[in-house]
Amino acid sequence: MKVLVATEKPFAAVAVDGIRKVIEDAGYELELLEKYTSKQELLDAVATADGLIIRSDVVDQEVLDAAKQLKVVVRAGAGYDNVDLKAATEHGVCVENTPGQNSNAVAELVFGMAVMAARNMYNGTSGSELKDKRLGIHAFGQVGRNVARIAKGFGMEVSALDPYCPDEVIVEAGVKPIHDIKDLYKQNKIVSLHIPATPETRGSVGYELITLMPKGGILVNTARKEVIDEADLAKALEDRQDLKYVADIKPDNAEELKARFGERVFFTPKKMGAQTSEANINAGIAAAHQVVAFLRDGVNRFQVNK
Ligand code: 3PG
Fold it and tell me: Across-strand partners of 134?
């Protein structure tokens, strides 16, 4: 049996070595497709794969049609909006993610970007500190919880909104639960987004919420560009010259925003949140173990298309 690792944005070499060991120790063959530049390369490689490990690589109907032998796809990471779950289910393919494995890496980047924005992108002018500032965490999943932990070290006041997470979990983390989304944006100088991209959340952070932020507000997005209404974001930045937007993935209107708002916006050139060797090792090797467990024993603990 063959396991394909298809990563347009490759894992660190040390993580690939670890993945190879897990796959080969189980008696399977590993094929590596890194930095591919055309979908055809993926279609060709997936044709003979029994298992597939990906990152943000798109696995749609066409890929699944080409993957005649495929039984399991493991997204080495948290968000699986890049996989067509319905098509996978129709093809009898199990889809899994590796929750929590890269969340510290993403959470650390939140602070990298928040400090940069608070210090005016290091442009030599006087900025501000995070200490004693209010931080609002929009969704208290694995990344949100790590953000809360780190925020305490900065001496921030932390609150979180998450209708899917019981208040007790939020309180136990020393964080104030918020139930009205407007309060989250109104009360916090820094808001950090950790909602997944779903039909419910796409475009859900728009003009009304963004302009509720207090003076000097910083919106940090290490989640997905799709959760922001980009036209609304531009209008909010126009009407509120004090606001900043920093994001770990370029919005579609990035060039327009950079031209209009200069140092008040920042975008990483590629999604960098999970791009650490530690996160690659954690998520990549977890994915390898999950593929083997599924192919060998039918274990589907992390299946997301049940
Ligand atoms: C995730 O959903 O796990 C993160 O967004 C990381 O994505 P990446 O593996 O493409 O860097």
Answer: 157
Place of tokens 């960098």: 272
For the chain, strand residue ranges (E) read 2-7, 29-34, 51-54, 72-75, 94-97, 134-138, 157-161, 176-177, 190-193, 218-221, 244-247, 265-267
The greatest distance separating any two alpha carbons of the chain, rounded to the nearest whole angstrom, comes to 60
Q: Where does 136-253 have alpha helices with state H?
A: 142-154, 167-172, 181-187, 207-210, 230-239
| pLDDT, tens only, 19-41 | 999 999 999 999 999 999 999 99
Probe target for ligand 1 pocket from 58, 74, 80, 102, with the most ligand atoms within 8 Å of CB? 102
Which residue puts its alpha carbon closest to atom 11 of ligand 1? Answer: 274
Angle among Cα 238, 254, 99 to the nearest 5 degrees reads 110
pLDDT on residue 241: 98
- 224-253 pLDDT, tens digit each: 999 999 999 999 999 999 999 999 989 999
Phi, psi of 182 (to 5 degrees): -65, -35
Take residue 216 and report the two structure tokens written for it. 């000097």
CB 285 within 8 A of CB 22: yes
The predicted pLDDT at position 289 comes to: 98
Q: Residues near 168 by Cβ (< 8 Å), separated by ≥ 6? A: none
Nearest CA to ligand 1 atom 3: 77
Q: Measured between alpha carbons, how far is 228 from 210 in angstroms, rounded to an integer?
A: 10
In single-letter form, the type of residue at position 184 comes to: L
Q: Please choose, from the candidates 280, 285, 244, 240, the residue with its C-alpha nearest in 3D space to the C-alpha of residue 265.
A: 244
Percent of the chain with pLDDT over 70: 100
CA distances from 162 to 87, 188, 190 (A): 29, 15, 17
Q: Which residue lies with its CA nearest to atom 5 of ligand 1?
A: 79
